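Researcher: Quick test of sequence recovery. C-alpha cells follow.
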C-alpha cells in the first residue's frame, strides 16, 4: 500500500445520493485524505458504481472497495471488479474483503457458515487472480478451474476487515492490512491490533481503523447526528467484545429490535451520550482532534473518518483535524 503512512482517510457508507459522490470524493482529495473507503452494505448503494464515480472525479486519491463479502459476491467477481477499476485507474485501487454484516446477510436470505475458511479462500483466490496467474483452486468452499483474469496482473493491495481474534490473525498473516470496523472503542482497537500482530509473526501489515466523526459548534451538535450510524454497527452480536472493552452499557438485543422496527426514538435512547463518547469522535474541533489522537496512539497507521454525509462536512472535518 506504499511507503507513505497516511494520516487520514474518509469512509462513505452508501447512504448519500449517488449524484453527490463526485463532490464528496473531490472534497476528500482536496482536503488531503489519502484514501476514500467505500462501504459495501447490502440494500444501500452499490460500492463498485460509487468507486467508479469517485475515481473519475479525482486525480490522486486511492479508492478502497470495503468490505466485499464472498457470501454475497463470488471471489472471482470481486477480483474482476477490483482489476477493472485498477486497469482504468492504475495504482489507485485497494480491495478490502470481509465476511459481511450477519444481520444484513440474514435479511437477504444468505447463509454465512464457516466465515474464517470462506474469507481465507476468498483472499487466496483474489490474490492469485490479481497476480495475473492461471488460477487452479480447489478449496472447501470455492473452486476455480484453470482460469485467469483478462486484465492481466493488477497492483491491488488486499486488506481484511476483521473484528474477531481468528479473523484478525488471518489479516496479519495473509493480507496487506487489517481494517477495524467503525464504532469501535480505542481499547478494542488496541486488542484488534494485538491479535493481528500475533498472526503476522513479524511481517509488516497496515493498521487501519474507521472512526465515526461528527464536527459541531458544541459537543451536543456532534453527538446527536451520529447515534443512528453507531447503533447500526453496534447492534451486531460480533460487537459484544467491543462494547465490553469500551466500558459503555448497551442492550444490543433491544437495539437490534429497535432497528428492525425502525423505532428511531428507541434507537436514540439506547445509544446514549456515553456510548457515543466511547465509540466515536464527536463535538468541537478540539474534542474531535483529541479523540482521533487517542485512536492513533493505539497504533493505527491510518484513521479513517466516517459519518460524513456531504462534501461540506468532509472538507470541514479534514480542515479541523489538520
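Model:
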Amino acid at each position: 500500500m506504499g511507503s507513505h503512512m497516511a494520516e487520514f482517510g474518509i469512509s462513505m457508507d452508501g447512504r448519500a445520493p449517488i449524484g453527490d459522490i463526485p463532490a464528496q470524493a473531490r472534497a476528500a482529495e482536496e482536503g488531503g485524505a489519502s484514501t476514500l473507503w467505500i462501504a459495501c452494505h447490502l440494500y444501500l448503494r452499490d460500492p463498485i458504481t460509487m468507486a467508479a464515480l469517485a475515481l473519475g472525479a479525482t486525480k490522486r486519491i486511492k479508492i478502497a472497495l470495503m468490505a466485499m463479502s464472498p457470501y454475497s459476491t463470488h471471489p472471482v467477481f470481486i477480483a474482476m471488479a477490483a482489476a477493472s477499476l485498477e486497469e482504468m485507474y492504475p495504482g489507485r485501487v485497494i480491495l478490502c474483503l470481509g465476511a459481511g454484516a450477519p444481520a444484513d446477510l440474514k435479511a437477504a436470505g444468505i447463509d454465512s457458515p464457516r466465515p474464517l475458511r470462506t474469507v481465507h479462500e476468498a483472499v487466496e483466490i483474489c490474490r492469485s487472480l490479481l497476480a495475473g496467474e492461471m488460477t487452479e483452486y480447489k478449496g472447501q468452499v470455492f473452486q476455480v478451474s484453470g482460469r485467469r483474469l483478462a486484465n492481466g496482473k493488477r497492483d491491488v493491495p488486499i486488506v481484511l476487515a476483521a473484528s474477531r481474534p481468528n479473523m484478525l490473525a488471518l489479516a496479519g498473516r495473509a493480507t496487506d492490512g487489517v481494517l477495524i470496523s467503525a464504532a469501535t472503542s480505542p481499547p478494542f482497537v488496541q486488542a484488534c491490533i494485538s491479535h493481528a500482530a500475533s498472526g503476522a509473526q513479524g511481517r509488516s501489515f497496515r493498521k487501519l481503523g474507521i472512526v465515526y466523526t461528527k464536527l459541531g459548534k458544541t459537543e451536543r451538535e456532534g453527538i446527536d447526528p451520529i447515534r443512528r450510524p453507531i447503533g447500526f454497527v453496534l447492534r451486531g452480536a460480533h460487537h459484544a467484545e467491543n462494547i465490553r472493552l469500551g466500558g459503555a452499557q448497551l442492550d444490543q438485543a433491544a437495539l437490534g429490535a429497535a432497528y428492525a422496527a425502525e423505532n428511531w426514538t428507541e434507537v436514540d435512547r439506547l445509544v446514549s451520550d456515553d456510548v457515543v463518547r466511547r465509540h466515536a469522535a464527536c463535538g468541537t474541533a478540539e474534542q474531535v482532534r483529541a479523540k482521533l489522537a487517542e485512536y492513533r496512539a493505539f497504533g493505527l497507521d491510518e484513521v479513517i473518518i466516517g459519518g460524513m454525509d456531504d462534501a461540506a462536512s468532509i472538507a470541514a472535518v479534514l480542515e479541523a483535524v489538520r
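Residues 8-215+283-321 form a domain with the TIM Barrel fold (CATH 3.20.20.30).
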